[in-house]
Design brief:
Strands 1-6-7-8-3-13 form a 6-stranded mixed sheet, sandwiched between helices. The chain has a 6-stranded mixed sheet with strand order 9-15-14-12-10-11. A 3-stranded antiparallel sheet has the order 2-5-4, with no helix packed on it. The protein is 29% helix and 23% strand. The chain is globular, with a radius of gyration of 21 Å. Strand 4 and strand 5 form a beta hairpin. Helix 5 crosses helix 6, helix 6 packs across helix 8 and helix 6 crosses helix 10. It is of the alpha+beta class. The longest helix is centred in the last third of the chain and has 19 residues. It contains 10 helices and 15 strands.
Length: 426
Amino acid sequence: MESDKVQVIESSLVAPREATPTKGLWLSPIDLAATAGHIPLVFFYSPGAAFSNVARLKEAMARALVAFYPLAGRLGVEEDGRLEISCNGEGALFVVSRCYLAAQDIDFSKPSPQLRRMFVPRIEPLSLILAVQCGRVVLGVAVHDSAVDGMSTFHFVQAWSAFAKDGDGAAIELPIHDRALLRARSPPVVHPDALSVLYPRVALCEPSGRPNAVEVFPISRDQLVTLKRLCGGASTFCSVSALVWQCAAVARRLPPDAVARLTFPVNIRRRGVRPPLPARYFGKALVELCTAGAAREIASEALASVACRVSRALARLDDDGELVRSAIDYLELFQTGSRPVRGSMLETELRVISWLNLPAYDADFGCGRPRWMSRAESVRGGFVIIMNDGSQEHDAVRVVMCMEAANINEFGLLLYASIANHASKL
């Protein structure tokens, strides 16, 4: 087993370097809606000296945790039973490991259970919020889904890496910890029109027995230019989401009258909230939107029309602040807890998560940016991540697709054939 080739050398807790607030941090309804548990990430670097200096990495983390102190706390429960973050300064888990496999013998090309077992630390106890594992060229990170979203996670990694590289000269942007900015109204009110575009909770079904598979589909800069032209100049997110949705509907051979639904979380730091949230709001600032149509329409209509469905849903978010406030109030009214939930999306549904323009590659600990980063593992069928490629090719993207193993090969063929066929007609 590959995991037998990784040896844990040291395991310790890193606490903030200075005294930090000791309190219970209230969690917003959006925080409490998280059901993914700890999110596993992996960063793969070129060989360098940065990760060999464990003391420097720990000192840098201790500095970063002063500003990002909730990550050094533990998940707790208020007197009324509501989940909170106990900001107690106990520290983040810091694991040092040694891998006895050569880099070329490890498949970093896509998420896998092996990557998670080898390079992401085990979470003990489960109340831990942040855990990291440092190897010679690999950094694994696990952070609880109720504590932060992708933007906040990468904000912390940016700050930690800046302290490791630049020491006292590191320039960081301080996080804003006021989660009451996303408090529900009193009394909560859900506008009826909001429910046509909101998808407040991701619905998962029990495993069907059909295995899922994960593949990564790179889209080059030239292919992306072609795709966006096909979609009438739509954004990268809308264009790629439309292509993925259409190809999945065809590959899955959905019944023509079935309702095919696309859902996607949207960052509300700079849109949908009046007044706007601070750009460095620290926590979860995501609202789940959706668009739907008959499967035969999604599978057959022009790609520009499919992209328009996505962009119309996004436009609703910008109309006024009511949509976001209704989403928060809905989540407050119908809290179901934030325990990790297993399962996959229904085959009629697809959830597209955008990591586009997140600072996922801005993690230079002193030996350069990561060569590659991704989720370490992706097991939920119907979940898709669209992210920047991270290579030298500007504007290239990667589609990380988890779906039924029986359909994923055809999905890939359709994806590239669709771009090529339409390109020949432009």
